[in-house]
Design a protein that fits this description.
mainly alpha
């Protein structure tokens, strides 16, 4: 599932966008066809041992890289959306989440969205992802849907 969906539809897309935004040429070494083919042939007991994933890779890395760089928590690709919506994107989001903007999409519960927005601004919950989906919909609607004059 990771190979068919998560990598293709999530992680690799993020790496591609981030590298292009920074004008960087990025290589994903574990996706080299030869490395990928070898990895598929590694027996499962060398991939997972004593509850630790990537066991054989870790053993190899321990020879060349300090353990503190290998045995640490994962660090994802998450963007600081919470902070951005409360900071540099706040005015933009405030405009798109206004009652007037939300009125253009009557299928949405504007009152509920406004409550989520206020809770988000106060730090009372994690609603950035939900708000982001609404923001994208409203921004799209404002750009592509012709304005109806009364």
């Amino acid at each position: 599932m990771d190979t068919l969906h998560y990598m293709v539809d999530d992680v690799l897309v993020k790496v591609d966008r981030a590298s292009m935004a920074s004008s960087l040429e990025v290589r994903v070494p574990f996706l080299d066809p030869d490395v990928f083919q070898i990895a598929w042939r590694i027996p499962p007991d060398l991939k997972l041992r004593d509850g630790q994933g990537k066991w054989v890779l870790r053993q190899l890395l321990y020879r060349h890289v300090p353990k503190t760089l290998i045995d640490r928590p994962k660090m994802g690709f998450a963007i600081p959306l919470d902070t951005w919506l409360r900071g540099p994107l706040r005015e933009w989001a405030e405009d798109l989440l206004s009652s007037a903007s939300l009125a253009g999409l009557p299928m949405l519960d504007a009152a509920a969205i406004r409550r989520l927005w206020q809770a988000h601004l106060k730090g009372e919950g994690h609603y950035a992802q939900q708000l982001w989906a609404v923001l994208q919909l409203v921004a799209w609607q404002q750009k592509w849907r012709p304005q109806v004059s009364a």
